[in-house]
Design a protein that fits this description.
Order of helices and strands: EHEEHHEEEHEEEEEEEEHHHEEEEHHHHH
Oligomer: single chain
Distance between the termini: 18 Å
CATH superfamily: FAD/NAD(P)-binding domain
Largest sheet: 7 strands, mixed
Strand content: 25-35%
Number of domains: 1
Helix content: 25-40%
Number of strands: 18
CATH topology: FAD/NAD(P)-binding domain
Length: 411
């Protein structure tokens, strides 16, 4: 019997498990893959996450392992390459955001959660659940052993992402294919010529992307492409989807060509999707969506991990208060409503910014029309980064972010 079952061991799930386990909760995490594992992701974390990472007890290890500080944003569109300063966040003590691979970040977080007392089941999946009064009976299937396990839990935190449709209450319904569907791609390269500390936006017909340095001298390239544009690219020549996308990136953006000249790709391209940006916060009583299951912005703003970590803190704070005040089942409606208000207040503006930037970046004509203005005032790129949340500190004042010891207080 557990206080909370967390479905998914990514940043949102692992951070929630860590926060709740430190507060004395009995927590079990169900993760369908075995860590470390690769994920389609831009892999950048804004500097506003650093106080929270410090509170989680992994700020130093993040700084030791992540790529160089990202101090400048840019735009690679056609033959144009622009740069501007990335807005600094005073709440982050003058530090800048950095990138760490999901293989490394997710493993660090899940191991920190295990160390705090959370039980980890991987590779495992939820195959059945039913609510009985104020608890859920959940059946887990363990892929490695082929065995099943039945558990009882008071709450369920759904951190399973949003790309796989299904019958689970927090999963998106299966939709018919549409030319407007978005698919994500990611690959790592070594020996790239991307200037250190620069994170450019890649603009091309039917999609957008980004590049950033991460650990061990690698460069991460991620992008999103509309289904109809991907179909047109694949009709032009042979190759798997990732290789076709890479060829299009090189052809569309001089900055990408120059950065990858002489670079070597590590492994194959990863692909995932369809991606459906939006807010998804309404679920049955006792089930709380976090991470992309709660809502996601277009990846063009590179705020996915930041939103996952920060939302995990927002929800955990509400749940700890609920438990201190008696943990009445009927009060969960109020907890969910307040969490939804918190989420919208802090993240809805990032979704709006991401929609606008994505619609602009994927249309070469729109980008070309604004390039003269951007060349005169490159600081507009800085303003766009600020609008998308790069300097927005959602956890209150730095002195109010709970310390590692504070997060361990029993509720």
């Amino acid at each position: 019997m557990y206080d909370a079952l967390i479905i998914g061991g990514g940043p949102a799930g692992a951070a929630s498990a860590l926060l709740l386990a430190r507060a004395g909760w009995s927590v079990v995490v169900c993760e369908k893959q075995t860590m470390p594992r690769r994920k389609v992701c831009g892999e950048y974390l804004s500097a506003t996450n650093l106080p929270l990472l410090d509170a989680l007890g992994m700020g130093d290890v993040f700084r030791d392992n992540a790529g160089p500080p990202v101090r400048r944003v840019g735009l690679f569109a056609g033959d144009t390459c622009l740069e501007a300063d990335l807005p600094a966040s005073s709440e982050a003590g003058g530090e800048f955001g950095r990138a760490l691979s999901r293989e490394r970040l997710d493993t660090l977080l899940i191991e920190r959660a295990r160390h705090a007392g959370a039980e980890i089941r991987q590779p495992s999946e939820v195959v059945d659940f039913a609510r009985k009064t104020d608890r859920f009976r959940v059946t887990l299937h363990h892929s490695a052993s082929g065995q099943s396990e039945e558990i009882s839990t008071r709450l369920i935190l759904a951190a399973h992402g949003s790309w796989n449709p299904g019958t689970w209450p927090s999963q998106p319904p299966k939709r018919p294919p549409s030319g407007g569907d978005w698919f994500g791609f990611k690959a790592h390269f070594t020996d790239s010529a991307l200037p250190e500390g620069l994170m450019p936006l890649l603009s091309f017909r039917g999609g957008y992307g980004g590049m950033v340095h991460e650990e061990q001298g690698r460069t991460s390239i991620s992008c999103c492409v509309r289904r109809d544009r991907l179909a047109a690219l694949r009709a032009l020549g042979p190759g798997d989807a990732g290789e076709v996308v890479e060829a299009s990136l090189r052809e569309s953006c001089r900055g990408v060509r120059e950065a990858l000249d002489g670079a070597r790709r590590q492994g194959s391209w990863l692909a995932a999707g369809p991606i459906h940006p939006g807010i998804r916060l309404r679920h049955p009583q006792g089930i709380f969506p976090i991470g992309n299951a709660a809502g996601e912005a277009h990846p063009v703003v590179a705020e996915g991990i930041s939103m996952a970590l920060q939302a995990a803190w927002l929800l955990s704070e509400r749940l700890l208060v609920w438990r201190r005040e008696g943990a009445a089942w009927d009060d969960l409606h109020g907890v969910a409503a307040q969490y939804a208000r918190d989420w919208r207040r802090h993240f809805a503006s990032r979704l709006r910014a991401s929609r606008a930037i994505a619609a602009w970046a994927m249309r070469p004509a729109a980008v070309a029309a604004t390039l003269p203005l951007l060349k005169i005032w490159p600081g507009l790129l800085s303003a766009g980064a600020r609008w998308s949340g790069k300097s927005t500190f959602v956890l209150g004042r730095p002195d109010r972010v709970p310390s590692a010891r504070g997060l361990g207080a029993t509720s």
